[in-house]
Design goal:
- Helices cover about 45% and strands about 15% of the residues.
- It is an alpha/beta fold.
- It has a domain of about 240 residues: Rossmann fold, CATH 3.40.50.
- The strands form two sheets. It has a ten-stranded mixed sheet, with helices on both faces. A two-stranded antiparallel ribbon has the order 8-9.
- Helix 1 packs antiparallel against helix 15 and helix 10 packs parallel to helix 15.
- It is globular.
- The protein starts with a helix and ends in a 9-residue tail after the last strand.
Length: about 525
């Protein structure tokens, strides 16, 4: 009862705090009238208003003076083509500095019936669209591959598009070595310090780009590239964070859309403007998915070798054991502990029920022999991805800078998500819902943030897909987005894991039908074809 009483009080503060902040000045000035690009600022409302007033039909990117690049495609193996495109670094200065974006394309296999380009984004933030193009180019439903050039661009600051850098692999691994999975004294001060060290590294390595990697500018980039590709209307398939990119695009350019499919949806209002409320939903969703895994493990001991009948307790015991006695390499450096175990499992839960037997086996290995993939050191790829993930979200999201409110919410998140919450809340800046300590102290201007509106007034029908057991983008967010959009249809996948497309043949077919033929699923449609756990 105490937890839920605190939840009620804190959520009230979460709703009120951003509005109180927005009613006051949130731009720090050096006193001479000049705006330091590394000074915190939230200017997206005024920026959007200026662009919207330019004309009834705004130019590509929504800004006068933007040069539309010429895409020079070259072969990059396997039937795929690659190109580079320069776009404005800052759309407030369209003729100023540029940033180079990397594109990948798989041409339509039936060019005589080609509809146009299908722009795709895998989410993250921090995911490379090039990889998704290659996967879809091999495995997407045949009508999608036949009728569309499947195109993706790595968003600014990601992949091959002048990627952001923050801490290197050694620095990031050493930061996680200081974290614990179970609550302990001093964890809040440690979280603040680890976040400050992370932020300092981002400034050291990427200061000139940090203010410009927010999603408003990524959406404007996509409109410029749409024009460069010769498409009058946008066809778009966004997954996970890619749904937020699509939502922002739909609100900036609602009449330039042909189809927009958003799978694994974000609630854009809470994500951008009430971030503690948004994060709390993900903490709850991750622990709920873990509990369902534990229940399966307990009920099917013949398929689950972890926990000896009490996997939940075994998981907490394993965390405590690894906190007290972490894994060290030959040099004596800590390379894995209870916190890094949790970080890996947060990603594993996205893989749904077919992966559960493998996860159980890997947990049993960690428990009995203290080795295996769950206890591997944080890789260079993970350090890079989570650096981009944190920096882009801090550019997008308006966290109140009140550290007492931060402390309250981190405690709350640990309380409502006791299995995974403490490691993510009080660890180094990690994945999605673990960014608050960094974003509260974020040193860069938020010059490319989008804060609404979210109704996409005037758009054609938009397809929103949500998965009931999604630990990464909770199902209520899909419901909320579908309601916020003026013209949207919600498709529900009743299952586990991250996104309907990845887990449901029914959802894949519905997405394909919508993208190709603009046929929406019936109102209230539910896909109920989740696969069971798979035992090798």
């Amino acid at each position: 009862m105490k937890t839920w009483s605190l939840l009620s009080r804190v959520l009230g503060a979460a709703v009120a705090a951003p509005f109180l902040v927005s009613c006051s000045s949130n731009t720090e000035s050096s006193g001479d009238g000049a705006q330091d690009p590394m000074t915190l600022s939230s200017e997206s409302d005024a920026l959007s208003g200026d662009f919207d007033a330019l004309s009834h039909e705004p130019p590509p990117g929504g800004v006068r003076g933007v040069k539309v690049p010429t895409l020079e495609w070259s072969d990059c193996g396997g039937g795929y083509q690659c190109a580079k495109a320069d776009v404005p670094l800052d759309y407030r200065e369209p003729r100023g500095r540029t940033i180079s974006l990397a594109l990948t394309r798989k041409p339509a296999t039936d060019p005589a019936r080609r509809i146009g380009s299908l722009w795709v984004n895998p989410g993250g933030p921090g995911g490379s669209a090039g990889g998704l193009v290659r996967r879809l180019g091999q495995s997407a439903p045949a009508p999608m591959r036949e009728r569309f050039d499947i195109i993706g661009f790595d968003p600014r600051g990601v992949g091959a598009s002048v990627p952001l850098a923050c801490q290197n692999q050694r620095e990031y691994s050493d930061a996680w070595a200081q974290a614990t999975a179970r609550p302990e004294r001093g964890q809040f001060d440690r979280a603040l310090q680890l976040a400050k060290e992370f932020n300092d590294a981002c400034v050291r390595e990427s200061a000139d780009r940090l203010p410009y990697v927010g999603t408003q500018y990524t959406a404007r980039d996509m409109d410029v590239l749409r024009e460069a590709a010769g498409d009058k209307k946008l066809n778009y398939f966004g997954i996970s964070f890619g749904t937020f990119i699509g939502t922002v695009y739909a609100n900036l350019f609602p009449k330039r859309i042909r189809v927009l499919a958003l799978d694994g949806a974000y609630d854009p209002e809470t994500y951008a403007n009430r971030p503690y409320e948004y994060d709390l939903g993900q903490y709850v969703a991750v622990d709920a998915a873990l509990k369902r895994f534990f229940d399966w493990c307990k009920d099917t001991p013949e398929s689950c070798s972890f926990g000896n009948g009490n996997p939940a307790k075994a998981f907490l015991d394993l965390q405590a054991s690894l906190d007290a006695n972490p894994i060290r390499n030959a040099e004596g450096r800590v390379i894995a502990n209870g916190a890094t175990l949790v970080l890996q499992i947060v990603f594993d839960l996205n893989r749904a029920r077919p992966f559960w037997p493998t996860l159980a086996k890997d947990l049993a290995q960690a428990q009995t022999t203290r080795d295996g993939r769950l206890l591997a050191e944080v890789s260079a790829g993970t350090a890079s991805f989570l650096g981009m993930n944190t920096a882009i979200e801090c550019a997008d999201r308006d966290f109140p800078r009140d550290k007492s409110l931060l402390r309250t919410f981190l405690r709350l998140e640990s309380a409502v998500a006791p299995y995974a919450g403490p490691a993510i809340a009080f660890g180094p800046p990690g994945y999605d819902h673990g960014h608050a300590p960094a974003c509260v102290q974020w040193p860069a201007a938020r010059r490319s943030r989008y804060a609404g509106p979210w109704d996409a007034a005037g758009s054609p029908p938009i397809l929103v897909v949500g998965t009931t057991g999604d630990p990464d983008t909770p199902y209520p967010d899909a419901v909320s987005l579908a309601r916020k959009l003026d013209n949207a249809r919600l498709l529900t996948f009743k299952g586990e894991g991250h996104t309907g497309y990845s887990g449901s043949a029914c959802a894949r077919a519905a997405i394909s039908d919508y993208l190709v033929d603009r046929v929406l699923p019936a109102r209230g449609a539910v896909c109920d074809d989740a696969l069971p756990p798979t035992t090798n």
